[in-house]
Amino acid sequence: MGAARQQLRHHGPVTSSPAVPAAAWARIARHVLQTAYPYASGHVARGPGDTDITPERLHPAFHGALDWHSSVHMQWSLVVLTTRYRDALAAAGELDPARDLLADRLTPEHVAVEVSYLRERPGFERPYGWAWAARLAADAPPPHREALAPVAEVVAEHVLAWLPAQAYPVRHGKHANDAFALRLLHEAFSRLGRDDVVTAVAARAREWFGADTDWDTRDEPGGTDFLSPALAEAELMRQVLPADEAAAWVAAFLPGLGAGRHGHLLQVPRLGDDRDGQLAHLLGLALSRAWQLRALAPLLPPEAAATARAGADAQEAAVRPAITEGDFMATHWLVSFALLAAGEGAPTSRRPSR
Predict the structure, then answer these.
(1) Cβ(61)–Cβ(81) under 8 Å?
(2) What angle do CA 26, 31, 37 make, to 5 degrees?
(3) Measured between alpha carbons, how far is 145 from 127 in angstroms, rounded to an integer?
(4) What is the DSSP annotation of 146-178?
(5) By CB count within 10 A, which of 17, 202, 266, 287 is most buried?
(6) Pick from 314, 286, 309, 310: which is nearest to 298 by CA?
(7) Rg of the chain's alpha carbons, rounded to an integer?
(8) Phi, psi of 214 (to 5 degrees)
């Protein structure tokens, strides 16, 4: 067992979140984005002439990092790191290589291929990949913001068509989880000034989740979860509801959070083997919980908030070594969730419901 895996299983109590190791995270993000294989295409062939899944041919902007959605959100990670941690990256010699990678990938020509693919396959990467693509478009600086505008537009069209058609939410702890996707979509399209999408997302969130109360979390986590269904839903509703309504909703949905109930959501999960792509999801679960617990803490009573934050700290610290030292099945995606956990690139300030 490698040093990273040893550290994953032998963690101590943590009282504060360590600083973001921006250069190391940028370096691993570049590495995985430049790793062509292994590759999981997600491509549905529509005939015998549609079977070439060569990564760079199929997705000239979003290849590497195992799959399309991971390539998207690891490029989002580079956007966050190069804009918010520019000096740290420059000092380590990582700024120009990271910027060069983004410039090479996010060209108008490459993006046009991605947009065509998304238009031809409206169910591709719904909703998880859509949400990350929207966040990338919203957070990218110029000129990438302009180049990615068509991606944001096609995702907006897909979201507006999808939400009225799906009767029930998907609540499990993996990619199809609708609460997680709606949370990212709401944030992204708020920034992009698409009030129509923001309104549609907020309305669907209320319809799907607004009446939920006293949620039973004893079935969490699932064996390959990287999201807590309960915390993902609570963080979505914290985002879309007015502040006083959000606090009341969270108190009714997860009564006693941080004060004796739902305590397992604050504990480090039994982390899986980072060489196994499905078991490695539990590393991301710890990070997504850390993000959501920190976002929800201001809505809790003071002692419960402190307990929730301590749980977040412990879960983040347990996974930190795997972000850069783990197997590719962990490193190809964890930087993005580590940035969420650290509060970077994912502001937790409440947006008013529209």
Answers:
(1) no
(2) 145
(3) 21
(4) HHHHHHHHHHHHHHHHHHHH--S---SSSTT-H
(5) 287
(6) 309
(7) 19
(8) 45, 60
Tell me what percent of the residues of the chain surpass a pLDDT of 90: 91
Would you give the DSSP letter of residue 65? S
228: left (phi over 0), alpha (psi -120 to 50) or beta: beta
How far, in Å, CA of 348 to CA of 22, rounded?
21
**Residue keyed to tokens 């490695």:** 280
CA atoms within 13 A on the CB side of 353: 19
| The two three-digit tokens of residue 84, written as one number | 């918010």
Quick one: 275 exposed, middle or buried, by C-beta within 10 A (0-12, 13-18, 19+)? middle
Tell me: the pLDDT tens digits for 41-95? 999 999 999 999 999 999 999 999 999 999 999 999 999 999 999 999 999 999 9
**Nearest one of 227, 188, 194, 229 to 209, comparing CA atoms:** 229
Q: Say what the pTM is.
A: 0.93
Burial profile 97-121: b = 16 or more Cβ within 10 angstroms, e = fewer: bbbebbeebbbeebbebbbebbeee
Produce one character per residue of 291-324: b if its CB has 16 or more CB atoms within 10 Å, e if not: bbbbbbbebbeeebbebbbbbbbbbbbbbbbbbb
218-265 pLDDT per residue, tens: 999 999 999 999 999 999 999 999 999 999 999 999 999 999 999 999
Signed CA dihedral, 168, 174, 179, 181: sign only: negative
CB 38 within 8 A of CB 331: no
SS3 342: coil
pLDDT higher than 50, residue 3:
no
Token look-up 């990467």 returns 125
Picking from 166, 279, 195, 182, the residue whose alpha carbon sits closest to that of residue 229 is 182
